[in-house]
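worker-03 picked up job from queue 'complexes'. Input manifest follows; two sequence lines, order preserved.
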Amino acid sequence: MPVDKICGMKVKEDTPYKSQFQGKTFYFCSAGCKETFDKNPLKNSR
Amino acid sequence: MPTDPVCGMFVPESSDLHIDKEGQRYYFCSRGCMDKFLSPSAEEGKLKRKLTVAWSLAVVVILLQYIFVSLPYRDYIEMILSIPVLFYSGSGFFQGAYHTLRARTGNMDLLVALGTSTAFFFSAFITLFPSTFPKAGVYFDAAVFIITLILTGGYIESRTKARANSAAARLKEIIPENVHVISGDGSILERKLEDVRQGDMVLCRPGDIIPVDGHVLDGTSEVDQSLITGEQIPVIKAKGDAVTSGTSNLNGTITIGVDRVGSESTLNQVYQLIQSASMGRVKVQRIADIFSSIFIPIVITAALASAVFWYLYLTVTGQPLVIEYAVLAFVSVVVIACPCAIGLAGPITLLISSSTSSENGILLKNTGSLERLSRATIVLFDKTGTLTLPDPQITEIIAAPGLDENDVLSMAGSIERMSNHPIARAIVREAERRGLNMPKAAETVETPGVGVSGIVDGKRIDISRYSAGGTSGVSVKIGGKDAGSIALSYELRDSARTSIATLKRMGLKVSMITGDTSQEAHRIAGMIGIDDVHSECMPQDKAKIVSGYQEAGEYVIFVGDGINDSISLETADAGIAMGSGLDIARESGDIILLNNDLSNIPLSIVIGRNTISKVKQNIGWAVGYNSALIPIAGGILVPVFGLSMFSILPFLAALAMGMSSTSVVLNSMRLRKKIMRSAGEYMPRQAMIPVKKTSADRVG
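worker-03 finished. Artifact:
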């Protein structure tokens, strides 16, 4: 199961909160986590 | 998923063990953790009473079990003595187990409750119905000693943790309850700190802890700021100077105008940040989380498997005491497993790391950044206010014939008072320091990049700014005629050169970003040993440069001003802000240097590297400990030591479980020494001592 890169929660792949970065899909538990990720995907994806 | 603020374990949001405090909801893995959070001192008193009952009865049970073997009704006496130990001293475990079952999860309480109740009820059954298993003995001693030893372990752990949290505890201890407020008619009233409001006047006598953030209205004193900034040398505070809560007034009486008090005060914010460090997370903790989430079912399965194995094996081989060995194997496995040690591995280390940092004036706002800090490959410095002091200093005042320095300064000050330019602030500050009169100016106009002009006492004054060849300053004209000039320079911070040398020794690249001209930027960079320079940058350009390095694969630390460089601080993998001494909560950056000492940058990286390696070590130890001891408890060593080892295994298991969390705490406490030792390797003692400033340190 994928892990929300921001809060560390496990999330299902059918979550409505997703972002694409460098060809990879990142999954989030909430709009807030997605927003934080999108602000700086480079920093938050590593 | 939320984490328990006491032990750091993951707790599902469905758990009914939660409380709401100061607008935040906290979840707990067990009743014990919740009570500890709500009232640590009451909980300690309760724990002591439970321990007294447990130990006094447990000793009697052991004596009956092994010494007074033939005492009549021995089993009944043991059973009656065990009841208070299990259901009073051990009540927390049963309550916790009940809550965790309702939330359909598992925790340490469940394992303890399962182990002890199995041993107790099995023994009680044999006592009440002796004919069922005629040869079987009772194991009340195992049940009571498991409770007693685990409670003892918990007590030692809480004492050790309190020591680990000493920095935060010291901050809390010094907050005075009552303060002296000067009322409107000048009388001095004693008031509770929580009743003090912004705008009140507080009297602070020598030896008092300054209770509020504010500014000095009257009086002069030396103030020791070491508890907040780590800086050992006291600073003189006079009228107009800002003072911080938690600092110590040494030798003069001062009246303070209150700016911030209570939860908004610096003291409280620092305290909150240290405390919340244990709730922060670093990525390596994920290993612990995965292990914890599957841990309880694995342990219970392993316990059942070993019980079934021994039951079948002993039955097939025709040996006696089949049921007892099966029960003892189950109890030992359930009791030896310690999910708490795994949960504690990250949080306790982060707490000690944050506490050690704050003692050195480094405030960790975001513990997650420790990991990125430990991986850093390049440090980017802002120049003005970071490598140099934020405000320029006056180096020379030249007056035209017939005028003196003070005439020039007074006229310039009158006009510059209208401007917020750093040069203007420096001129006004110097005029105030000299006690000069600055007549009110009229019709003042500021032209950005050029200067300020206006009318003072009927005469036109023009102040034009210049910056050339490494110096900057202003020329002053009165009524169109040259009246003089004031030269200013930015001073390098004491530790700029040595810190950059240290960072290079640590294998990091160093770069400088500034809005200054290329010539000026390279001149300063050359003085302090930086080769990679970006000049003439706007704040948004700085953030783009940070991203550029990240795209090239570097892990970037940006060091800048907490207010003006906020975009770059947020973009960088780790942002280190020079503390402005204002509102910590509003400043950007993952880390704030409260004493503005640049040697704390290499120290922060050392802290990051050592903290992450200690968290990994703790997780490795806790996971390894559980993986190695569960098979032993299950009886893997019986072929070596024989079946009789099962009579002591439940005790050893309880002892191991009781001490495993303590050992994680003790291992974490070595972090402080490790940080200092590895800081010493990169930063020899002489390099840490501020270098005396020379004229070469004036950088225009």
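worker-03 released lock.
Chain B has 25 helices and 24 strands.
Residues 686-700 of chain B have pLDDT under 50 and may be disordered.
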